[in-house]
Design a protein that fits this description.
By secondary structure, the chain is an all-alpha fold. The chain has a domain at 322-479. It has helices at residues 2-19, 23-40, 44-61, 64-80, 84-95, 98-102, 104-120, 124-138, 144-164, 168-183, 187-207, 211-227, 234-246, 250-267, 273-287, 290-358, 360-393, 399-406, 408-417, 423-433, 438-445, 449-463, 471-479. Helix 9 runs antiparallel to helix 10 (168-183) and helix 16 packs across helix 19 (408-417). The longest helix has 69 residues, at 290-358. The chain is globular, with a radius of gyration of 27 Å.
């Protein structure tokens, strides 16, 4: 008995000693706590400095939790400033850390931020996927307050995405879900979410042409923020400003846009500057002050050009990341399937022998069921193919992501051939694989036929396609594994 107690004591103290953090790691935790407070107060300038300091120290210490938390915080700073590519890079780094798999909160935050970035880049399906993952991970968080905060954020982000997509039914569904959930929580825990939730309700009723209801919610957002001394109100003021502009209350619109501008300067959320300048320009133009209108329009245009350049660069990185994820999923899925297929083959052969020799009638029934399942599968594939063709003809930004869902092996096979292809080259290969002519591709992507011809020529060289081969025929043969060259 004494030996047993001694063993238990040694185990407990050993575990405690193992779980203790070093003084340097505790110091990093304090910096991260400061960062978190600055982010809650939407002070991106201060948050950026703290997060960068924690990130560098965590890297030097090989402190996985510190790297994860600081990377997520830095991604939030980057998102607020419109630097999406850098934000994604931080999130991808967090995913590689051991602590990522240990913490549901970190996983929820990473998916939430990825969803926000993808949504801003018009990769809506990927955004929805990440927000839903965030909702799932939020439910796994054991701390009740943190669970409530992250769940409310996930609902809020889904509202934001469906508002961009102008899907009013989905917007209202998640608005109600969010409000029902938030009412069950302590206000001091979810007040930040309530600020943005009331703004979202204001936008919803503004779109429905119900200005009185919209103003009611915009005011509720402002009152909630003031009650809890929450400094972030630029988004609410801007949306409210657009409602006043629509109502032809130009002085009120200018005042609200100016409030938004002042708030942005305090918070450092520079990603909202361009649209706020645009709002001021429209309001001054409507009022007849053309000098002011031109002044703000020039400022908005300058920022818009910069944002567009950043988005193009970020989109290339994001699509490449999506392709890498698809390749990884493909390897995991089909690696397991090889084992399953081998076992299944043995079982099927044994089963066929049994059926053919003992139960021929039952075998005929099984064959009929297989044929039925095959027909149903073909119907599903056809539906996916029809949607894909529509996306291609509309030059829909979701085209390539949807293409990989229908043809998951495509990215893997092409990447095997040349891992250095650009996202635009993957997309051109996808169009060609579907059988579109050079003229069709030029029409759908708003490019000159000569440009597409040159791009195809360069792509053939990068894929080392034989000169005498028809590109589309070769591509289909290679991707479908009929041609091992």
């Amino acid at each position: 008995m004494k030996k047993f107690l001694l063993f238990v004591c040694i185990s407990v103290f050993g575990a405690l000693a193992y779980s203790q953090k070093s003084a340097d790691e505790l110091s990093v935790d304090k910096i991260l706590d400061h960062t978190y407070q600055q982010l809650l107060n939407v002070n991106l300038t201060k948050a950026s400095g703290f997060a960068e300091q924690a990130y560098q120290q965590s890297k030097a210490l090989h402190y996985s939790e510190g790297i994860c938390r600081s990377a997520v915080y830095l991604s939030q700073v980057c998102f607020g400033a419109g630097r999406h590519e850098q934000g994604l890079r931080y999130l991808n780094e967090a995913e590689k850390e051991p602590y990522y798999n240990e913490s549901a909160g970190i996983r929820a935050d990473v998916s939430r931020m990825k969803g926000r970035i993808f949504s801003n880049m018009s990769l809506y399906d990927k955004g929805v996927s990440e927000f839903r993952k965030s909702l799932k991970y939020s439910g796994e968080i054991k701390n009740p307050e943190e669970n409530a905060k992250m769940t409310a954020f996930a609902y809020e982000n889904l509202v934001f995405l469906y508002t961009i997509k102008k899907q009013k039914d989905s917007v209202f569904y998640y608005l109600k879900k969010n409000m029902e959930f938030s009412k069950k929580q302590k206000e001091e825990v979810v007040y930040r979410n309530l600020v943005n939730l009331n703004t979202a309700f204001g936008m919803y009723y503004s779109d429905l042409g119900k200005p009185d209801s919209a103003v009611y919610y915009f005011k509720k957002s402002e009152e909630t923020a003031q009650k809890h001394k929450f400094p972030y109100q630029s988004y609410n003021y801007r949306m409210w400003g657009y409602l006043e502009l629509k109502q032809k209350h130009y002085d009120s619109a200018i005042r609200l846009f100016q409030n938004a501008l002042d708030n942005i300067k305090d918070s450092g959320v520079e990603g909202e500057l361009a649209e706020t300048y645009e709002g001021l320009s429209e309001a001054y133009k409507a009022k007849g002050n053309l000098a002011k209108a031109r002044e703000y329009k020039a400022m908005a245009t300058e920022l818009d050009n910069k944002i567009s350049q950043d988005k193009v660069k970020s989109s290339e990185y994001a699509v490449k990341q999506i392709v890498n994820d698809e390749v990884q999923n493909y390897r995991q899925k089909y690696g397991k399937m090889l084992i399953i297929s081998a076992v299944s083959a043995v079982l099927i052969l044994g089963g066929l022998y049994f059926y053919f020799t003992r139960k021929q009638k039952k075998n005929k029934q099984i064959i009929k069921e297989i044929e039925k399942e095959s027909v149903e599968l073909k119907q599903k594939v056809n539906e996916g193919f029809e949607e894909l063709i529509r996306y291609a003809k509309e030059n829909n930004p979701e085209f390539y992501a949807r293409f990989l869902e229908v043809y998951p092996h495509f990215g893997f096979r092409i990447r095997e051939r040349n891992p250095g292809l650009k996202p635009s080259e993957f997309t051109l290969a996808a169009y060609t694989y579907l059988g579109f002519s050079t003229k069709d591709i030029a029409e759908y992507t708003y490019k000159a036929v000569k440009t597409i011809k040159n791009n195809k020529y360069n792509l053939r060289k990068r894929l080392d396609v034989p000169p005498q081969a028809d590109f589309m025929v070769w591509l289909r043969s290679y991707v479908d594994d009929e041609l091992n060259v």
